[in-house]
Amino acid sequence: MTNKMHSKPYIIASLVLSILLAAAPLRAETSPNSLKAAFVTKVLGYVSIPPRSDSSRPLVCTAASDDMTSEILRYLEQNDLDQKIRVRNLMYNRSLDQCWVLYIENEQVRGTSFMLSEARGKGILSIGGEEDFLAKGGMVYLYFANRKLSFDVNKTITDAARIKIDARLLTMARKVER
After folding, report:
1. Is the Cα dihedral 10, 42, 108, 86 positive or negative?
2. pTM score
3. What is the mean pLDDT of residues 3-24?
4. Angle between the N-to-C axes of helices 66-78 and 32-42, in degrees from 0 to 180, rounded to the nearest 10
5. I need a surface site. Which of 39, 113, 128, 150 has the fewest CB within 10 A?
6. Which of residues 111 and 62 earns the better pLDDT score?
């Protein structure tokens, strides 16, 4: 009975976000940052994260340039999701409290290993663009291959963090580490 009780918040959060994000088509912009922003936002519709102590709306935390954080905000605004999903740049507040997703732009970010460790412990989906991101403990490595946005997933780490990734998303991954 307790398993059913614990799975209910997963199901509700996943369903709500799937409905919200399914209605958000990708616009004509095709800059690398706009594609990454769309992925970081839309991935919320394909994952179930551990329940949060508060019932606030999802929070995407970025350890990224102001340009990338602005691109995520712009994507949310263009798709009328800015009232449903929040964004915070960790440059100004390093706390991962309330984060659902942690996006780390590149290896230039200080304290990446510490943030990834904290994210795993708190059940926060970590996404990054550093080549050895998965080896460092990241969950989703986001990159361009043949001019297309691609991603790899470290399923072992997502499972350990109690993050469930929809099978549809896993089939789109170029590589799934188990």
Report:
1. negative
2. 0.83
3. 44
4. 60
5. 113
6. 62
